[in-house]
Specification:
- This protein is about 60% helix and about 0% strand.
- It is mainly α and about 90 residues long.
- The longest helix has about 40 residues, at about 15-55.
- The protein starts with 13 loop residues before the first helix and ends in a 14-residue tail after the last helix.
Amino acid sequence: MNNARVNPDGTPTAELEAATARVKLVVVLELVGFLVIFTCMILMRFGQWLADSASPSPLSVGGRDENRSRRARAHPARNARGNPTSGV
């Protein structure tokens, strides 16, 4: 795009128009790819939320309660919220 020149009267050449069209295409494709990935990230978060709130399905790998009990076993000096306890 940097090497594409303009005509002496300031109008774009065919080379500049082709480069501009290529840049527009690449920008649109990158934007669509970003939106697809961003949407998938949001859907995965809601999917995890739905899996945690519903009955266990064969596709879920455990809910919040199982993860909490794993954390409690790994860190016995922490309460259910993950905060340190006094140990008494």
